[in-house]
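Notes from hallway chat w/ T.B., transcribed later so I don't forget. T.B. wanted the structure written out for a chain they're using in a teaching module, and asked if we could keep both sequence and structure tokens in one place. Agreed to drop them here.
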Amino acid sequence: MDRIELICPKCKTTYEFNPYAKLCPKCRAPLFTKYSLLDRDTFIRCIEEAHLRHEYGIWSFGSLLPVDSGESLGEGWTPVIEVKNLGSEYNIRLLLKNESLNPTGTFIDRGVAVDVSYAYRNGFRNIVSVSLGDYAVSLSTYATRYSIKVTHYIPRNIELWKLYRISIHGSRINLVDSYVDELRRALERYRDRSIYLSISSSPTVIDGYRTIVFELYRYIARGVRWIALPIGEGVLATAIYKGLYELSEYMDIDDVRILGVKLYTDKPGSIPGATPDLIYELGVGETPTQRFIENIANKDVLHIVNVDGDTIIRSALGLARREGVYIDPIGATSLAGVVEAVERGVIDRNESVIAIVSGSPSKDPYTLYSLIEKDEKAFERIRNMDIDRYSINKIQREILRILYEKNILYLYAIWRELLNRGYNISLQTLHYHINKLISYTLIEPIKITDNERTYYRLTNLGLETLEKIRE
């Protein structure tokens, strides 16, 4: 596209399109690209032609992106699957846009592919990023293709496998206490510098994400009335909102609504604010895109529902059990929201819904155990297996005892308890034992709302193991 400018969707101020523009300076809302020379006929032609060029991935929409081409690892044009068993249970037509089949397992690859290509074309060979785990994994992967060096600032409670994945690509990693605070500092620190700042709410990333809407165009034209998606930072919802706005502007398609699904953690009978680490990225705190989404929630285009972590995990189990589709539990958030919306009458019976699911299937024992324990029969089979194969050592037994007595503790507190009981080990050694117990699914990491520390508690299997040890 020959001419691009930026516009704030909130205050309508326009800005020059440049590598340093991330948020509206006036109201801190995300910025949208506006293609000044784009007209109705050109837009329709681009969309139709792209549907004949799947092999180019998101770059089949190159004329509708800030850069028309770039390195590809196969991102985009993920399949749409009709899940008839679950759909018939709730008397709706339910389809899944399976974004877990992108190169690093999430829809994030779409935006990062565009963002890194844009940075490279503008002469940047160093990127700084403040991001969560999945974004950091994707950014490290695509930057490698361009031989771009990346420095990451990511939360301390990042899942270990993501930390390892980022390290494999040679990226520099800095662990931070607060993602939201570090993001705010970075937006000030890296204005007008020679280092490119890559964040999830960048206009280039939003444009990459919105290609999901363009791929779904024909389903929308045939009667899909809802697109369900998770709201963590709110960037995906913002991008889908922009894509639907463009369909309305250029193709007169304006009867599709967004179902935004947020994580609600304070459930009666649960530890207040406790969120399992496997879905912690849904509860990142208030971000500019999240505020923008909440501002448009009262309009007809967006409805927000809240689900708790237990419901999300049960939805992931149901998807695997009923449809043979296994994804990371966090990726089933949108599906959990659809069920909630149907039961509350937000989504009418017989309506057609597309749920965007994301997150590559996990081989992590803790994640798999979290699913299994929601199924009584499967859990009973696991429980009756010989758990002595775990070879629990003396220190690990004491850690189980400590968590039984104290219910929930963070790493340093566990270490202090061990010292008081005569176990003189280093924090590094304790970290090793904690990871072992997690891999055995005997303890689980959780995040407490408004606290950046990772806490630990016994699983049901851990409690049963401790009882057997006592015998």
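Follow-up for T.B.: The CA atoms of residues 260 and 304 lie 5 Å apart. Might be a good example for the class.
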